[in-house]
Design a protein that fits this description.
The protein is an alpha/beta fold and 271 residues long. 33% of the residues lie in helices and 18% in strands. The chain contains eight helices and nine strands. The longest helix has 21 residues. The protein binds zinc ion (ZN) (2 copies).
């Protein structure tokens, strides 16, 4: 089985612990053949809603140099790519375009960690079903904007707020908004943007990938082909975690291939 982890954070993310080298070595041990570093670039967030220090990213560090050295050192053991996780790119399209035009990147994940004017989902307090529904509704609107903006290669962890809502006892899901969900996935397909199957939900009380099986199936039914798998690991113990399960899920949902990227060009490898 071809295992690929296209969502990995290193010390270049404010909330992650281990170096690029240590993350890649841990992934090799788990049988990962291809890995893309996707450190946070939250410069696109609304001011006041920043979760991660914006200055940690590229221009201020030798991040790309470090990537090139690790890629060289591990060549033959694992195929490494350079990417980022851009949050809320629809809030700041100009910055998003700047990242998309930067030729160092192979891959960009477009994620929503907060909706306009609200805190990161991680920090929010969920106190009613009504509030969870309202957030989920706006969340899907924002993903629709991202598919139309088109500066990313895949949509990150679709359904991400559910991870925190479940923890507060609410079972609200993007599936509660079938028309909006279809519109997001259809627009992604039409604009050549894929989705990822993010396995971090397997490591918490949610107990499933983000998105889950039904959404992955729906994406397939709507003609979706571009799909990546990612651990969203922030420490080496999680590098490559759950990728085997995600690959199985893809197969069950009718995918024969998993996607990797070189300079934003999708490549399809049999799972
Ligand atoms: Zn994320
Ligand atoms: Zn992430």
């Amino acid at each position: 089985m071809f295992l690929t982890d296209y969502h990995v954070h290193s010390t270049h993310s404010d909330d992650a612990e281990d170096t690029m080298l240590d993350m890649a070595l841990a992934a090799v041990k788990r049988g990962i053949k291809s890995l893309c570093f996707t450190d946070h670039a939250d410069e696109c967030c609304d001011p006041g809603c920043l979760s991660f220090a914006p200055n940690l990213f590229l221009p201020q560090t030798d991040m790309y140099g470090e990537f090139e050295r690790v890629k060289e050192e591990l060549s033959g053991k694992i195929d490494l790519r350079f990417g980022c996780e851009l949050a809320a790119i629809n809030h700041d399209p100009e910055t998003a375009k700047k990242f998309r035009a930067d030729e160092r990147f192979d891959f960009i994940i477009g994620s929503v960690h907060n909706v306009r004017g609200r805190d990161d989902f991680y920090f929010m307090k969920y106190d009613s079903e009504e509030m969870c529904r309202e957030i989920t509704d706006i969340y899907l609107d924002e993903y629709l904007e991202i598919t139309r903006l088109g500066c990313c290669d895949v949509l990150g962890h679709l359904g991400y707020p559910e991870k925190y809502m479940v923890r507060s006892g609410f079972e609200t899901s993007v599936l509660d908004y079938p028309e909006k969900l279809r519109a997001v996935l259809k627009s992604a397909v039409e604009n050549g943007i894929g989705i990822e199957v993010n396995t971090s939900g397997l490591r918490c009380s949610l107990g499933r990938t983000m998105p889950g099986r039904e959404v992955v199936k729906l994406y397939r039914e709507l003609g979706g082909e571009i799909i990546t798998t990612g651990s969203d690991s922030h420490r080496k113990a999680d590098a490559g975690a759950g990728i085997g399960e995600a690959a199985e899920l893809l197969r069950e949902c009718g995918f024969k291939y998993v996607t990797t990227f070189t300079k934003h060009e999708p490549e399809f490898t049999a799972i």
